[in-house]
Design brief:
By secondary structure, the protein is an alpha+beta fold. It has four helices and seven strands; from the N terminus they run H-H-E-E-E-E-E-E-E-H-H. The protein has two domains: 32 residues, no CATH class; 93 residues, no CATH class. Strands 4-3-2-1-7-6-5 form a seven-stranded antiparallel β-sheet, with no helix packed on it.
């Protein structure tokens, strides 16, 4: 039995077939499906209210803090004394851009995951991935209370 080895041309042909397959999948708008499969290669670490997170500001380590509150578009640290923006919720991180000065803030639970942020952001932008549902869930309790208070006020008004 002969053992055949692949030549450079064989590898080139396989690469071209793979690229053609990816182009066809891209053309039929399977971009989100492909992105979700690629994103599953990244680690998964949820961040919730009360967890300690490492905060990076503009690419440099800033501090470790405990999340005291998570809202829809921001997180609060130090007993809700400091508000930090939150733009995207990834599989293992949260990222925000401050509208006032354009600073980038990254929230992660493990220092070693910071190296993967650029890869995760590239995957998110190329494949158009949405927010991760299980990460940095906002606390809707106060919003529900506010909505119910407004509804009760509306019921008492007579026309």
């Amino acid at each position: 039995m002969d053992v055949t080895t692949f030549t450079l041309w064989d590898y080139l042909l396989l690469a071209m077939c793979f690229i053609a397959l990816m182009a066809v999948l891209w053309a039929i708008d399977a971009r989100g499906w492909i992105g979700s499969k690629v994103a599953k290669l990244l680690p998964f670490a949820t961040i919730q209210q009360g967890d300690k997170v490492h905060i990076y500001l503009n690419g440099e380590y800033n501090r470790t803090a405990t999340l005291s509150k998570v809202a829809v578009d921001c997180v609060y640290i130090y007993d809700s004394a400091i508000r930090l923006p939150l733009s995207h919720r990834g599989r293992f991180y949260g990222i925000g851009v401050d509208a006032a000065d354009g600073s980038h803030v990254v929230f992660i639970t493990r220092h070693r995951h910071y190296r993967l942020i650029r890869v995760a952001e590239l995957i998110r932008k190329v494949f158009g991935l949405q927010n991760e549902d299980g990460n940095l869930n906002p606390d809707y309790a106060e919003y529900e209370q506010l909505v119910s208070d407004v509804a009760e006020e509306g019921e008492s008004d007579e026309c």
